[in-house]
């Protein structure tokens, strides 16, 4: 197979990168991707497509990708499951949508992390359920608050949690809290949906494996593990997966058969080859090194440039960090001022649940740092520091 990416195609792809502005959240670095290998995998599958492939219509997704995914998460995340339990979805959001529709009735209480991703909260609301924000601290989700009769929702149906690191704070759920979460779920008869955004991109300390690796009775019946290829490859791929308890396989497959069925088979087959031939693991190693370097550089630069009242929190992994602004600062206005200077960020307050007037939401900025190489990051850090200093009435350092 002549697998050369035409130069104009690569240029067009990289132009998108120019449009993905520094500190945009959830964007990969397209320059780090092995485009030629991806193209070769896709072209080869297209040429070799058989009638059986053309007619394949399995609501859980292509068996060869389900096997590849299972092998990958077994090695990378310690997940123990069978291929029967694996579903290929349209990114993690596709899995979340299925979980909401399969598990929730209108009015059900659902734990979500606070702060946490807006798209998750929206999906829970769309199912007619009631998201109950549970605070996240340095040890991850405050399970005791969730289980508290007045402050939480002890009888919630589902808890959506990102144990590897919560978005956007980067907090990792500690082992005691993992055990506490699973024993709450067993008592409440709840399902825990573990969303593993960037679970493999851990830099400091040893990675805590998935909840599905814990040797706790009943864990296999209570936990759905969700992953995505959006962060490590690219979001337009729209491929992710979920691993569901054995008892949920049939109802979930029936629901899938009556909705989107499965992502395009050809794409799934190409991704399966990409994983099976070791390209994905190699790419992840490269990505991890690059992302770690960028995090270290950015933190050092922000530490040097930012006024003392602003604190950057070092994430232990992933490609997102948060900056705490002084109380009373208007993070939405800061984000707007940054946008006018060509730099993206998200306001932390918007990812946080509403608070009583007496205790307003803490302002801050959410910064993605995975998509750009060092020179662009340093430039953006200088712009950021100047804009933030002006907004809070402090002097920028140089
Ligand atoms: C924190 C976070 N990570 C990753 C994603 C990517 O979602 P998907 O896997 O559906 O592309 C999202 C989407 O909302 C998100 O909120």
What report would you give on this structure?
There is one protein chain. By secondary structure, the chain is an alpha/beta fold. The protein has helices at residues 7-19, 35-47, 51-55, 63-77, 91-103, 118-126, 143-146, 175-188, 219-222, 246-257, 265-276, 279-305, 331-340, 374-392; strands at residues 86-89, 109-114, 130-137, 140-141, 158-161, 191-195, 223-228, 240-243, 311-313, 320-324, 346-347, 364-368. Helix content is 43%, strand content 14%. The strands form two sheets. An eight-stranded mixed beta sheet has the order 1-8-7-6-5-2-3-4, sandwiched between helices. Helix 2 crosses helix 11, helix 12 (279-305) runs parallel beside helix 14 (374-392) and helix 13 crosses helix 14. The radius of gyration is 21 Å and the shape is globular. It binds pyridoxal-5'-phosphate (PLP). Pyridoxal-5'-phosphate is lined by residues 26, 91-93, 117, 119, 167, 197, 228, 230-231, 235, 240. Residues 26, 91-93, 117, 119, 167, 197, 228, 230-231, 235, 240 line the site of pyridoxal-5'-phosphate. GO terms for molecular function: pyridoxal phosphate binding. Residues 58-348 form the Aminotransferase class I/classII large domain. It comes from Sorangium cellulosum. This is GntR family transcriptional regulator.
